[in-house]
Amino acid sequence: MSPSHLSTSWEPYSLTGGTLVVMPEGGPLAGKGVVRRMVEIGVTVSRATERPEAGHANAEEAVLLGVQRGALVTRIARTYCSDEGRAVETADIVVPTAGCAIEYEVPISSR
């Protein structure tokens, strides 16, 4: 069984170093997500941006995703920002186009 997507993310060590959340997949908040983990260290995540772009799987992505090299993929560049405007996590996500759909929900505020 192949994975549904690939994701590589980065968080600033200057923000997470020396805290319980320094390793996103380790420690007491392992796998809890960037928003929940940042709250633990006093950072409020207030927005996220995602930029989807069509592309083709390179050799490594093809092997990892179980698709042919050159298969259509959607690349998503995602950034979570704090309420102060600082990027607290960036991620590069690759999703094979065949057999899946990408759906977004956009919250609407009347304020």
TrEMBL record:
It holds the Pfam family UTRA. Signal peptide: none annotated. It comes from the Bacteria. Residues 40-94 form the UbiC transcription regulator-associated domain. This is UbiC transcription regulator-associated domain-containing protein. It comes from Streptomyces violascens. The lineage of its organism: Bacteria, Bacillati, Actinomycetota, Actinomycetes, Kitasatosporales.
